Amino acid sequence: MKQKIIFIGAALVLLMLFIIGTLVFKDKQQLATQAHVQVNQDALMRMHSPIIGAQNAKVTIVEFLDPACEACAAFYPFVKELMAKNPEQIRLVIRYAPLHQGAEQVIAVLEAARKQGKYWPALETVLASQDKWTKNHQADANLVLPLLAPLGLDMTQLQADMQSSSIQMLIQQEIADAQALGVTKTPSYFVNGKALQSFGYQQLSDLVNEALNH
């Protein structure tokens, strides 16, 4: 009986040490990530970044997305919902982290559409039709183009702009900034400069609410 009590006691001590160790490691990891973001604040937003929402909004969500990422497509309506619940208080800044093969060309499509004032409808169309132009996690920009035709774009001009040096340089800047901030998965969110550490709908909602109530 005594040995059993000692065994249970030792097991509980080990469990507590494991929990404490895990929490300490998590805290250190979060602090390291945030310190990394602080050092690279300039990489969070650029003059060329697409922004939607009030300019003086209390909360700024910076989202690094890959248009070929399924989770990005799934989260986009959720972010728009958060914004709709808090009109004038949240703005969204779109950044790119093209992690899927072919995604850079789809970003070029979006940026070329932006030159014609159709960025947001183009982004929503691209995300909503993702299954039509991605196969085995590879993006095919040629399949995207016909889907954008109903937006009234000049498709000849759009294809020419896709290859422009300004858009190609923009994409390279996006990739460099994503790397500088340690973005290795999409979507990745930063709320008022604070990185979302634990990914999920509730976690993002909590971080946004924290910023709203700060």
UniProtKB/TrEMBL annotation:
Keywords: Membrane, Transmembrane, Transmembrane helix. Pfam families: Thioredoxin_4. The keyword Zinc-finger does not apply. Residues 18-213 form the Thioredoxin domain. Signal peptide: none annotated. The chain crosses the membrane at residues 6-25. InterPro entries: Thioredoxin-like_fold, Thioredoxin-like_sf, Thioredoxin_domain. SUPFAM superfamilies: Thioredoxin-like (SSF52833). The keyword Secreted does not apply. Coiled coil: none annotated. PROSITE patterns: THIOREDOXIN_2 (PS51352). Belongs to the thioredoxin family. DsbA subfamily. This is Disulfide bond formation protein DsbA. The lineage of its organism: Bacteria, Pseudomonadati, Pseudomonadota, Betaproteobacteria, Neisseriales.
